[in-house]
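Subject: sequence -> structure tokens, single chain

Hey, anyone have a minute? Need the predicted structure for the following. Not urgent.
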Amino acid sequence: MRRASILAALVALLAATGAAAQAAPEPPAGHRHATGDDGAAHRRVDAIQKEFDAVVADGRGFGLAFAADQHGYPGPLHVLELKDRLRLTPMQEARMRALFETMLAEAKPRAARLADAEARLRRLFAGGGADEAAVRAAVAETEAARAELRLAHLRAHLQARDVLTETQRRTYHHLRWGEPKTP
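Reply:
Had a minute. Here:
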């Protein structure tokens, strides 16, 4: 669950920085940057970002398919992790392994493109050459790469769902997310 807590921290950080960027010059109530910590908070964020980059570069999703996973479309890696509790048949296990390997083969080069695009965006700012047109182009490239990576993961979730029985899908959801919420 360490990945989930790191993802939650990264999402909270991104949400907070996005909200702060849109706020008035005065910080919102309760929003304060630590003083006197010699950049410790920024080092923690940098460490989380580096772990995110490493996990994604390895072909793993790091939350890219939460929308699917939370709503009945399990991912092949997590299904394999829970294979005994889901009582996968040998054929189901083989199919999940194949789906996982296919997803990794698609995801790794897409993750490399995303990492390259993110690095170009950072270099644009670091080199002092950022203007609106250059930033727009770099962001478009970065987000197109992120979309392709996310699609590789989401396709695996779509296909994995069809391998499981309805009972296995319910069990998976309960094991990963707890009881479903009723509207």
